[in-house]
Design goal:
567 residues; alpha/beta; six-stranded mixed sheet; two-stranded parallel ribbon; binds 2-acetamido-2-deoxy-beta-D-glucopyranose
Amino acid sequence: MLFLLTLMTAAGLGNAAALDKKQAASSSVVPQYFQTSPQIYPGPTKTAAIAPFLAQTNPAPIGTLYSPNQPLETAVPISGNTNNSNIFQLMGQLSSYFPNPVGFGVNEYALPPGANITTAHLLSRHGARYPTGDSSVSSFGSKIYNVTRNGTATWTGALSFLNTWSYTLGAEILVARGRQELFDSGVLFYYNYGHLYNTLTKLVSRTTTQDRMLKSAEYFMAGFFGFEWPQNVTLEPIIEQPYFNNSLAGYFQCNNSNNYRSTAGNNASLVWENIYLKNATQRLRALSGNYNWTVADSYNAQTLCPYETVAYGFSNWCSLFTYDEWQGFEYSIDLQFQGNDGFLSPTGRGVGIGFVEEFYARLQGHLYNLPPGSTNVNTTLDQMNNTFPLNQSLYMDFSHDTNIYSILTAFGLQQFSDKLSNSSITPNRNVTISHLTPFGARVVWEQITTPQPVKAQRPKNSNATMADFYNPGNRTSYIHMTISQRTVPLGFSYPECGQRDDGWCEMGAFMNILSGLLQQASCFGNYPAASWLNVTNGVPVTKRHLLGGGMGSGLERRRNSDMWYDL
Ligand SMILES: *[C@@H]1O[C@H](CO)[C@@H](O)[C@H](O)[C@H]1NC(C)=O
Ligand SMILES: *[C@@H]1O[C@H](CO)[C@@H](O)[C@H](O)[C@H]1NC(C)=O
Ligand SMILES: *[C@@H]1O[C@H](CO)[C@@H](O)[C@H](O)[C@H]1NC(C)=O
Ligand SMILES: *[C@@H]1O[C@H](CO)[C@@H](O)[C@H](O)[C@H]1NC(C)=O
Ligand SMILES: *[C@@H]1O[C@H](CO)[C@@H](O)[C@H](O)[C@H]1NC(C)=O
Ligand SMILES: *[C@@H]1O[C@H](CO)[C@@H](O)[C@H](O)[C@H]1NC(C)=O
Ligand SMILES: *[C@@H]1O[C@H](CO)[C@@H](O)[C@H](O)[C@H]1NC(C)=O
Ligand SMILES: *[C@@H]1O[C@H](CO)[C@@H](O)[C@H](O)[C@H]1NC(C)=O
Ligand SMILES: *[C@@H]1O[C@H](CO)[C@@H](O)[C@H](O)[C@H]1NC(C)=O
Ligand SMILES: *[C@@H]1O[C@H](CO)[C@@H](O)[C@H](O)[C@H]1NC(C)=O
Ligand SMILES: *[C@@H]1O[C@H](CO)[C@@H](O)[C@H](O)[C@H]1NC(C)=O
Ligand SMILES: *[C@@H]1O[C@H](CO)[C@@H](O)[C@H](O)[C@H]1NC(C)=O
C-alpha cells in the first residue's frame, strides 16, 4: 500500500486509473480454490499439429443429399442413409450437442398459469475436444503410418487417402466446435433462466481444474453474461487429480471404478464390435494390400471420424461406414456407458452419489453432515458458504460424460436401467448416450412453485381456465428434470411422484426419495467383476460396506470414456 501511494505521487493524477488496476491486482489474494489463472492441474494441453483448412480439404461442399454436422458442412453421402439422417447424431458421447429428438416418454408442457420457476440447477458437460494423448486412436494412427511407410499396406479404393494420411490431432483440450457448444449453451441458458439472476449478486459456479473443464465453464459464462462475466460469477475449479475428492470427477475417489470390476461395458462393447463391424472389416481388409485389417482397426477408424470432424471440419473416415454401422457405433458406446458407469456397473452409483448429496443439500438449504472421506465430495469446500453457497437461484456445475451418467444412475432413474443386449441392438432404448451426454450435454432441474397442487393430467384444450390446471389446496413445490431439453418423467423412477403428464415430482416426495438414495454406493472392497447383466442396479450384487477399511488395490488406469480405451 505504501509502495502504491509513493508511486501514485510520483506518477501524478494522470495515471490514476492504471494504478487502480495495479492496486486491485496486488492487494487481492485469490484463494487457491477460486484461482483460474495461472491454471493448476490443467492436464495435457496439446494442440493439433495442423490447423483446419476446410475450404481446401472439403471434397464435397454442402449439397442436398445429406444432413450436415452444423455448422461444419460436409456433404459426403453415407451408404444406406435412406432417411437423410445425420450420422453425427449417432456418435454417443462424441456427438456434438443436439436436443433429444425422441424424449423420455412424456411431452413438454408450458408452466400452468400462476406458477413460478424459483431455482434452476444445471449440470453441464464440457464441449468437443481432442482425444487423449495415449488413446487407442493415436496408437492406431501411428500404426497406420508405419505400415504405410514400410510397405506392408497398399491402400486402394476408399482407403487411398491413407497413402498420405497421418494422425495429427492434439490432446485433451477443447476444439473450436467445443468452445462454440458451451458458448451456445450459455446463451440458451440465459434465454431460459436469465430472469433468475439477481444482478446485485455474484454467483459461485463449480467446474474442475482440467483445461477443457475450466474453459468450458468460461465459454458458457461468456455466452450467458457476455465478456464481463467475472463481475457476475466466481468460478471454482475443484482439483481434478488422483487422490483428490471431487464430485464432478468422482472416479478418482472410487477405486473400483478404475479397475477390472467395472469394465463390463468395455467387454460387452467388444462382443458387439465383432458383430456389427464384421462386414466393414472384410470390406476394408480388401483395400489394405498385405496388411491384416482387424475389427479393432475398424473401430478405431470409426472413432476417428467424430474426432477429426470436430478438429478439422471434415474427415475421410466417416464415409467408410454405412448408416447401419453408425447405428452400431452409437450402440457400442451405449453398452460401454451402461456397463462401466451406469446401472450395469457395480460402481455406477458410487461415482455419482457425491453430486446427489450436494444436490440434496441445495434443495434443503442446509448442509448435510457427512464424515470426511465417506464419499467423493470435497467436504472442506462443501462446508464453507463461499465455496458451497446454498442460497443461489442458479446453480451451474460442469462435469464429464461418464461422471454425469453415473450421477443419473445414483439418482436411481430407472428409465436408464435398460438391460442392453451385447449381441443385437436393443430398439427404442432410453440409454442412447448421444441423447444424454454428448459434447455440451446439459441436465437441468427446475424448482417450481404453484399456487395450488397441479393436476396430474394437463388440460387438453387451449381455452382451459385455472380450475382445469389445479386441484384444491395450498401452494406446492415441484421438481422438473430435463436432459437435452426433454423432460425426464420422475414418476417412472419413483412411484411416489405419481404418473404425471408433466413428469414433475412434488418436492416433499422427492426429498424423501433423495434421502433414501444416499447410502447406495460401493467404490471399495473386494467383490468379483460382474458378468454381463449380472449387476443391474449400479451396485455390486453382494453390496459391501467397507468404507474406512478394506480399500481396493489403488487406482489403476483412469477409465473415463473421455480417455479412450485400448482395445
Ligand atoms: C511406429 O514406428 C515408430 C518408429 O519406428 C515406433 O516408435 C512406434 O512404436 C510404431 N508404432 C506402432 C503402433 O507400432
Ligand atoms: C511395419 O510396421 C509395423 C507397425 O509398426 C510392424 O508391425 C511391421 O513389423 C513392420 N513391417 C516391416 C516389414 O518392417
Ligand atoms: C453482471 O454484473 C454487472 C455488475 O453488477 C451488471 O451490471 C450486469 O447487468 C450483470 N450482467 C447480467 C447479464 O446480468
Ligand atoms: C479440497 O479442496 C481444497 C481446495 O482446493 C484442497 O486444498 C483439498 O486438498 C481438497 N481435499 C480433498 C480431500 O480433495
Ligand atoms: C453383412 O453383409 C451381408 C451381405 O450384404 C448382409 O446380409 C448382413 O446383414 C451384413 N451384416 C451386418 C452385421 O451388417
Ligand atoms: C488377421 O487378424 C485376425 C484378428 O486379429 C486374425 O484372427 C487372423 O488370423 C489374421 N490373419 C492373418 C492372415 O494374419
Ligand atoms: C457464512 O458462514 C459464516 C461463518 O460460519 C457466517 O458468519 C456467515 O454469516 C455466513 N454467510 C452467509 C451468507 O450465510
Ligand atoms: C423409456 O423411459 C420411459 C419413461 O421415462 C418409459 O415409459 C419407456 O418405456 C422407456 N423406453 C424403453 C424402451 O424402455
Ligand atoms: C409467483 O411470482 C409472483 C410475482 O413475484 C407472485 O406474485 C406469486 O405469488 C408467485 N406465485 C407463487 C405460486 O409463488
Ligand atoms: C374450449 O374449446 C373446446 C374446443 O377446443 C370446446 O369444446 C369447449 O366448449 C371450450 N370450452 C370453453 C369453456 O369455452
Ligand atoms: C393449507 O394450509 C393450511 C394452513 O397451513 C392448513 O391448515 C391446511 O390444512 C392446508 N390445506 C391443505 C389441503 O393442505
Ligand atoms: C451374479 O454374481 C453373483 C455373485 O458373484 C453370483 O453368485 C451369481 O451366480 C451371478 N449371477 C449370474 C446370473 O451371473
